[in-house]
From TrEMBL:
PANTHER family: HYDROXYPYRUVATE ISOMERASE-RELATED (PTHR43489:SF6), ISOMERASE (PTHR43489). This is TIM barrel protein. One of its GO terms (biological process) is glyoxylate metabolic process. Residues 1-79 form the Xylose isomerase-like TIM barrel domain. GO terms for molecular function: hydroxypyruvate isomerase activity. Transmembrane segments: none annotated. Keywords: Isomerase. It comes from the Bacteria. InterPro entries: Sugar_Epim/Isomerase (IPR050417), Xyl_isomerase-like_sf (IPR036237), Xyl_isomerase-like_TIM-brl (IPR013022).
Length: 79
């Protein structure tokens, strides 16, 4: 719903995964979970916000994540 409402205004929706050790019970804890949602929604204006701290803590191997999914990230937060 939000993606369709924001698209005509050129706005993006970002999905961010957070480590359960930092934010228990958050909707997404893994980059792969966030990626699955982005792919399921299948909208041109829905992307992942990569937080390097949370990604390394949960998924590890930042090099792999950045290399293989670079086109899915709209924002990278370096922590």
């Amino acid at each position: 719903y939000a993606a369709d409402r924001f698209a005509p205004h050129g706005k993006r929706i970002l999905v961010e995964a957070l480590s359960p050790g930092v934010k228990p019970h958050y909707l997404f804890s893994s980059q792969y979970q966030a990626l699955a949602i982005v792919e399921e929604v299948a909208r041109d204006n829905v992307f992942i916000q990569l937080d390097t701290f949370h990604a390394q803590k949960v998924d590890g191997n930042l090099t792999h994540l950045i290399r293989d999914y670079a086109g899915k990230y709209a924002h990278v937060q370096i922590a």
